[in-house]
Amino acid sequence: MKTPPPILSKDELRDAAGIVRAYFSTELDQELGQLAAEMLVEHFGQHVGKMFYNRGLRDAESVVRAKVEDISDTLYGLER
pTM for this one? Predict the structure, then answer.
């Protein structure tokens, strides 16, 4: 089975793992190692990240549709 390409850069992965480690420590009173945190970030990135990505696309599409409608209305107003 082919490994998918990384979703995050090494720096982004390190930063995200730090956030996960801090959460586990603060909220769950559990220590999580760097490797385990990075694996957790990668797992959620691969399996849950697409949901956030798709939501972002839908939100962006709504904004673009609204702008296109505004432009259409403006152009209609310019007709003679």
Answer: 0.70
DSSP character string of 26-42: HHH-----HHHHHHHHH
For the cut 90, the answer to whether the pLDDT of residue 16 exceeds it is yes
- Predicted pLDDT of residue 7: 83
Dihedral, CA of residue 4, residue 10, residue 12 and residue 17, to nearest 10? 90
CA distance 16 to 22: 10
Amino acid (1-letter code) at residue 29:
D
- Mean per-residue pLDDT over the chain, rounded: 94
Q: Is 48 helix (H, G, I), strand (E, B) or coil?
A: coil
Q: Is 49 exposed, middle or buried (0-12, 13-18, 19+ CB in 10 A)?
A: middle
